[in-house]
Every structure is written in C-alpha cells, then in structure tokens.
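Ops channel
N.P.: pipeline sanity check, posting one input/output pair.
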C-alpha cells in the first residue's frame, strides 16, 4: 500500500482496519547471496539500496533484537553537512542530498525538518576556525553563513549573551541542517527493502562467522547456520565484538553517549544549537520536548546507559547557555554505545577476508550518514568498487597515517 493523504482519510473513515504490517516476518533461508549483520539505520539502508540500485534481492538482514532498537532509535536526530576535511566533506554533502528526497523515495513520513543548525563560537580564534569550516562547506556546494553577535541575538534571544565566562561571539549557521524522526528512518528503509524482497530477520543474533580458505562462507546464528559468500558487518556499537568473530581486531573503542529529553513545552527552539565552550547541543522535538546531549562518558563500556557525572556536566553546560532551561522538568535520559575510531571518522571498506565487508566506526555522528552510508556500502558490496563520496573511508588509513581528523582532536568532537 502506498501511503498518502487519501489513505489516511480512507482508513480514518473505515476504523483504521486496513493498515497492513509494514514488513514480513520471514523464516531464515539456508543460503543468501548477501547477509547484512545488523538491522539499524545503516544495515537497513544498505539492504534497501542493494535491492533498489543493484537489483540484488536474495539478501537477509540479521538483527539480534528488533529493527530500530539500537542507536538508530537512540540518537538526537541531528542531520547536517558541516564537515571540512576531504573525505568527510564530500560524503556528508552527498548524504544530505539523499536526505532531501528521502520522504518521496521511501514514500514514508520521516519528518525531515531543515530547521537549520547553529554552531556557536566564543572567541576570535574559534571564529576563524568556523569561518574556515564555512568556506569548506561552500566550496563543497553546501550552505554556510557566519553570523556576528548582534544578528545572533535577534535570532536566538533566549541564549545567555551576558555570560562573561563564555561570551557568545557569533555562530556558523547551516540552513539546510536540521532533524528527522530517527526510528521512522529505520522503518521507512525496512519497508522499502522488504517490498523489494529482502528478508528482514529479527531476534537472530550472529554468534560466529564461518571462513574457509580465507573466504567467508556463512554465519552461525541463534536461529541456525546460514550460508552466504558475501557478508556486511553493520553493527554500530558492536563492531569490535562481531569483527572478532572473524579474528579481526579493529581500531575502535566503544563508549557510552547519553541524551536527555524534557517534558513537552510550548515551541521555544525552532532550530538546532551547539554550544562551543562545552559539550552541549539542543533542539526541540515536534512533541515539544527539549532534546539535548553532551559528550561521551569517557571510559570503554557496553552498558547502554550513562553515568551521573556526565549528566551533571551536561546540565551545567545547559544552564550556562540557556538559564531558562532550569525550569524544565527532565523526563528521560538514555545511552547508546558509540564505536569511536582514532580520527573520529568512519570505515566503509573490504577486509583482508574475501567476501567480508565492514561498515563501522560512526562515532556519534552516524545518524546523518544513514542514507549516504547505505548507498555507498551497497555500491561496494555489489560492485567490489568504492563509491566515490566514501572512497576515503579505508581501514588501512590507520596504518598509513592518512587520517581524516575533522577537528584535530581525534575522536573527541563535541558535535553530534
Ligand atoms: C545519545 C546519542 C545521540 C546521538 N545523536 C546523533 C545525532 O544527533 N546525529 C547523528 O548523526 N548521529 C547521532 N548519534 C549516532 C548515531 O545514532 C549512530 O552513529 C548510528 O545510529 C549508528 O548506526 P546504526 O543506525 O546502524 O546503529 P544501530 O541502530 O545500533 O544498528 C546496529 C544493529 O546491529 C545489531 N547487532 C549488534 N550485534 C549483532 C549481532 N551479533 N547479530 C545481529 N545483530 C547485531 C544491533 O542490535 C543493532 O540493532 C547519536 C547516538 C547516541 C547514542
């Protein structure tokens, strides 16, 4: 069924009894051409583009829990293309272009809202750095505007411009940045892949990778062995554990990232704002909750929930930037496992094992990458060649020293 305004009216008038499940629940087959491990945003978009762009449909996505239960459903939904380093710049620019047509492409309301993103700067040096980033964005064909303090005060009057410790000098504005409904992105790709014949198999944990003579031949799962000559590892915060099943040690450390949401409030923030003097960023959801987050918990962990010192740090940054937030009641907080690479940039590559491909290391910026990553990884899996926008995301760059170090601070970015 195609979704449309007409369907909403028709179903509304007939008791909403005509909606169908959005994907099948197939039993795993003994063999597939390609197996994707991980039913998050990246795994589902990879499967979708394999079917749509390359006509490959004998594919299974194996998900240990339920579709969309990982980081795709835990992030703070910011989508932007404000990167400056060669490698990231062309990739995120490409991904943003896919976002802009994604609702029509998937026939799904993913609530993509280009409400703009502001990165605040608080010193002359920081302004120079952000001006460079803005120029790189414009060179890449994207949009960037540098606002001074007076213009910014008109646009975001609720920020604390009188703060003497962290004075706001201005902001780098990215009008095409914004947010999208995160789990709807997973559902939209899942439905599109399923409609094209891809088997989405939930409650199916991969527990082993079968390799013979240096080539992949299948996987062991909690629902039995499944054969395949091509395997894509797309498991976000579990990349090290799953790659270890193939005897690989990845240049990745896993840390927890937390996020927070307040009770629903009347509209106050119609954009996305990142503080430049601490680890804090904020937007407002369409339901009215203020959605915000900070930095990593900074010790390796698979706990999927965060610690209190980081919560306190985030609250302090929030109060420094926007004191009125002290009146809002916090509704929930949660955490997700972030696979951090040494340079903070991801990996989309083949491995030394024939037929084994890796999509990993998205750190805390992988939601905005979902369309571009799926498109590029599908291209690599289907053709064996790197897709141009993602061609620099090689695994051996950490041996070769060819890093894509976006902020010159390794994996310690403060933007999400
Ligand atoms: C609090 C927080 C805020 C964030 N904010 C942003 C943001 O604003 N903007 C942004 O761009 N990014 C953000 N991110 C990062 C983004 O969410 C991730 O980079 C991205 O979602 C990771 O890719 P994924 O969607 O494929 O991951 P996931 O949804 O985690 O998918 C991986 C899947 O693999 C499955 N899996 C793991 N092991 C196995 C196995 N052995 N067998 C089978 N299945 C397995 C997991 O169950 C999971 O469903 C944030 C993350 C967090 C936690």
């Amino acid at each position: 069924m195609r979704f449309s305004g007409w369907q909403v009216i028709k179903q509304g008038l007939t008791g909403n009894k005509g909606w169908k499940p959005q994907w099948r629940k197939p039993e795993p087959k003994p063999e597939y051409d390609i197996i994707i491990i991980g039913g998050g945003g990246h795994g589902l978009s990879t499967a979708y583009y394999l079917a749509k762009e390359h006509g490959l449909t004998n594919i299974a996505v194996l998900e240990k829990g339920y579709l969309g239960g990982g980081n795709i459903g835990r992030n703070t939904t910011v989508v932007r293309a404000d990167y400056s380093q060669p490698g990231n710049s062309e990739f995120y620019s490409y991904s943003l272009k896919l976002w802009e047509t994604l609702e029509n492409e998937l026939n799904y309301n993913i609530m993509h809202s280009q409400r703009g993103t502001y990165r605040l700067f608080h010193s002359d040096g920081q302004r120079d750095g952000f001006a460079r980033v803005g120029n790189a964005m414009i060179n890449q064909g994207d949009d960037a505007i540098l606002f001074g303090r007076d213009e910014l005060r008109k646009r975001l009057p609720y920020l604390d411009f009188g703060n003497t410790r962290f004075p706001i000098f201005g902001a780098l504005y990215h009008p095409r940045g914004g947010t999208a409904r995160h789990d709807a992105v997973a559902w939209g790709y899942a439905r599109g892949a399923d409609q094209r014949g891809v088997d989405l198999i939930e409650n199916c944990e991969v527990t082993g990778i079968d390799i013979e003579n240096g080539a992949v031949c299948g996987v062991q799962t909690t629902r039995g062995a499944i054969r395949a000559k091509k395997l894509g590892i797309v498991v976000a915060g579990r990349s090290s554990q799953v790659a270890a099943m193939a005897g690989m040690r990845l240049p990745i450390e896993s840390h927890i990232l937390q996020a927070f949401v307040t009770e629903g409030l009347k509209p106050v923030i119609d954009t996305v704002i990142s503080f430049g003097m601490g680890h804090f960023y904020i937007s407002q959801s369409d339901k009215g909750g203020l959605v915000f987050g900070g930095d990593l918990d900074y010790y390796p962990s698979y706990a999927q929930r965060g610690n209190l010192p980081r919560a306190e740090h985030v609250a302090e940054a929030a109060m420094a930037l926007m004191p009125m937030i002290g009146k809002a009641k916090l509704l929930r907080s949660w955490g997700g496992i972030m696979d951090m690479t040494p340079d903070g940039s991801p990996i989309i590559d083949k491995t030394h094992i024939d037929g084994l491909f890796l999509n990993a290391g998205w750190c805390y910026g992988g939601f905005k990458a979902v369309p571009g990553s799926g498109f590029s990884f599908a291209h690599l899996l289907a053709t064996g060649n790197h897709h141009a926008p993602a061609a620099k995301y090689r695994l051996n760059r950490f041996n070769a020293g060819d890093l894509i170090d976006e902020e010159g601070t390794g994996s310690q970015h403060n933007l999400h």
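N.P.: looks fine end to end. Confidence is low (pLDDT under 50) at residues 410-416.
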